[in-house]
Design goal:
Layout lengths: L4 E6 L7 H13 L3 E6 L14 E4 L1 H4 L7 H9 L4 E4 L3 H14 L4 E4 L3 H5 L4 H5 L2 E4 L24 E6 L9 H19 L4 E4 L8 H9 L1 E6 L13 H11 L5 H9 L12 H8 L3 E5 L14 E3 L6 H8 L2 H16 L6 H15 L14 E2 L8 E2 L30 H16 L2 H11 L2 H15 L3
Parallel strand pairs: 1-2, 1-3, 3-4, 4-5, 5-6, 7-8, 7-9, 9-10, 10-11
Antiparallel strand pairs: 12-13
Length: 465
């Protein structure tokens, strides 16, 4: 069966985070179709799209608002095939891009929130014709992502509890605020009780790649909360009002901002399981989480130690954190129910997207993609080496990374002598073998001196006679 050619639009800039990189790579690894990656931060999306059976707009594409040029929007709008938008952080993307969803003619949305959230943001007639696919913010990473990472027995792990969080703007609401609160309070409790921990909540302390996996594999338990927000600013202006007020009141607490600006906004349930929890599960590390739903994937005290949000059961929680046999049993149950079930793998998710494409467009255009080598990597974590004379601002078989240097000069003053030579050659040969060319050659041969000069000139320009 002929595979469909799918154009996958993304941004390489956020690929320094494990979750984004795994998400983007998953389509090339698991799709039944041929995925053509195009990084919209490397160059403009202004080429002919008719070769593709469908276009997928990944969530990191929508986060880069500088990519949305008038030409790009017109180019996408003119494309008649299936257009699938993958969204996350809908509290931002709905506010920024609802007009683009309409003007670009998006026909399907992959979302982590209830589709009814989109009903409030889009025209009724447009919303009625949309296809929605519910998804998670992330899935279980491939096991080869942890090559070189040693998973230690619980008794040999250095930390009881590990965590990384950061301060989040107050406008995101209480659900998002919990990411900061749980880290701050648990770190103080652990320090007071002399419990080994590696908990930090500052931006500069965040970890990526192997450093993040090392923290997980050296911790008995990873602290965590649900991901998402419950504040959606459909009308706009909330961010600006809060920022202006906080400039006048820089010492204001979250509770003050919540009371003044957020209390009157209807809360929307957008709580999700975080990709970081899947990473911990895959590395056989236990979970210590605020009580929550976690997208129905995890059950309290079966798959994680459940901490009440007011910390009223902290003694029970820390006793469980000291029970190595109990943690081991919980880790095995979680591995069985989450990993071995196969329900939360990237391969299962990508198949759902493949099925959606077939639903929207059962046929195959049958166009044959012509591949050319534009560059390579020494290994998965090395920067791309660009082939001389080639451009990386083109669809590629593998996604680019944030550390790749993509030459993109604004102005170039240069004569391409090779191209000039080839152009002269093509013109010369077309004339040489024409009736006019044969007459000219016969005429020149009648005069030995003129013929010799003409031959030298032609040889200088073409290398041939």
């Amino acid at each position: 069966m002929t595979r469909k050619n799918i154009l996958f639009l993304y941004s390489r800039i956020p690929s320094f985070t494990n979750a984004v990189r795994d998400y983007v790579n998953a389509f090339g690894q698991h799709s039944a179709n041929q995925i053509h990656y195009f990084d919209t931060d490397s160059g403009p999306l202004e080429f002919d799209l008719r070769a593709f059976d469908a276009i997928i707009f990944n969530y990191c594409f929508w986060a880069r608002r500088s990519s949305f040029t008038t030409k790009m929007i017109a180019c996408v709008a003119a494309y008649s095939g299936p257009k699938i938008a993958i969204f996350q952080d809908e509290q931002d993307t709905i506010r920024w891009h609802r007009q683009h969803v309409v003007s670009m003619g998006i026909r399907a949305i992959v979302t982590v929130v209830d589709p009814e959230v989109w009903r409030a943001a889009l025209p009724a007639d447009f919303f009625r014709d949309l296809i929605f696919l519910r998804a998670l913010t992330g899935y279980l990473p491939e096991q080869n992502a942890f090559s070189g990472i040693v998973t230690l027995p619980m008794a040999e792990r250095r930390w009881w509890i590990g965590y990384r969080g950061r301060p989040i703007p107050y406008q995101y609401g209480r659900l998002t605020r919990e990411k900061f609160v749980i880290g701050e309070r648990m770190r103080k409790i652990c320090e007071a009780r002399h419990i080994p921990n590696n908990i930090f909540t500052a931006e500069e302390d965040r970890l990526y790649d192997e450093a993040w996996y090392d923290l997980i594999s050296n911790s008995r338990l990873m602290l965590g909360t649900e991901s998402g927000t419950d504040i959606f600013d459909f009308e706009g202006g909330l961010w600006e009002r809060v920022d202006a007020w906080r400039k006048l009141h820089p010492q204001a607490s979250f509770e003050e901002v919540e009371e003044k600006f957020l209390s009157g906004i209807e809360k929307i349930a957008a709580n999700q399981i975080s990709p970081r929890l899947f990473e911990a599960i895959a590395l056989r590390t236990g979970l210590l989480l605020f009580e929550g739903e976690y997208s129905g994937v995890l059950t309290p005290w079966t798959h994680y130690i459940s901490l009440k949000k007011d910390f009223s059961n902290i003694d029970e929680v820390l006793a469980a954190a000291d029970d190595l046999a109990g943690i081991d049993a919980m880790v095995e149950r979680t591995w069985r129910d989450v990993v071995l079930s196969g329900k939360y793998s990237f391969s299962a998710y990508v198949k759902c997207v493949d099925d959606l494409i077939v639903r929207m467009h059962p046929g195959v255009l049958g166009r044959v993609a012509l591949w050319g080598l534009v560059g390579w990597r020494e290994n998965a974590n090395s920067a791309a080496t660009q082939l001389p004379g080639q451009r990386l601002q083109t669809p590629t078989t593998e996604p680019l990374r944030h550390f790749d240097h993509i030459p993109d000069p604004v102005v170039i003053f240069r004569i391409n002598w090779g191209a000039l030579h080839r152009a002269v050659m093509r013109r010369y040969e077309s004339v040489l073998y024409s009736p006019l060319g044969r007459k000219c050659k016969a005429y020149l041969q009648s005069n030995a001196l003129v013929y010799a000069v003409a031959r030298k000139c032609v040889r200088l320009l073409t290398g041939r006679w």
